[in-house]
Amino acid sequence: MQGSSKVSKTKFCAGISDISDGYSGFIIDQWGVLHDGVKAYDGVINCLTELKERHKYIIILSNSGKRAQTNADRLSELGITSDLYDGIITSGEVTWQGLDEQSEGYFKDIGKKCVLISRGGDRTIVDGLDIEVVENPKNADFLIISGSDAPDKILEDYEPLLKESARYNLKAICANPDSLGIMGGQNIMGPGTIAARYKDFGGIVEYIGKPHQPIYQHCIRLLQKEDIYPGQTVMVGDTMAHDILGGSLANIDTCLVKRGVHSSVFGDSEDLAETDRALNILVRQYNGVRPNYLVDDMVWGKALPDRKHKRRDK
To answer: Strands, DSSP E only, in 121-252?
Structure first.
């Protein structure tokens, strides 16, 4: 297999069964692919079950600003239990580990006091760390942007805090680069939009997550422990900007799911010519990066009701 950057034409697939034989490793996005934040999509549990029965190694890769276990708990509540995948990697988990060690890169000696922008005041990204959350940027060493309270808050609501943080030259860690998110089928503002606004005010931002390569390299290292290499791996996601671009840069084949962030571009038409035109619009918007495959949903074949899956001890 070759990386997505070399794709000349996208193969339209009825489901993941069309591509499963070609890969040993599956890196799968979470929001917009497996669920919408409220419920798992129809066919997802069945699809994961089929992949596991074929001994595929599955990593769920998410730009969630929350830690891996928090995401695992949420998935379990939605019926996507831990026997359906092999690991979860989140930008929040990578951020937590970096803040804990503070030994290299952007995290090195970053400090012990932060201003935190998160969803609903969530502080799990610093729980258990020797880091104090403060309200006033004047008293902080750095800024964390891990979530947003959209749609209850709009971008302008964050601007006074962002301007004050920039005034004190706080470095920012964006622990979720998504500019858009999915909540109950509605597109909402993501933390990446807040981080971009901070840059507008002169702030310096380090993005942890897709499409940036460190998080993909982390996935690759895990897969290589199973003797699975990039050419044997496919990234399944719903966003060109994060999943498809990031996979392409890592020389991993990619599969775009029409449901999710780009659903409005594709619409409801089942006409292949219209779908191809919509895809070409996205490809042009993202500098010619093209997915290897396109599917309507994360389903095995035709959309079928989820069947009960066998439990497996890990």
So the answer is: 132-133, 142-145, 171-174, 180-183, 186-189, 205-207, 233-237
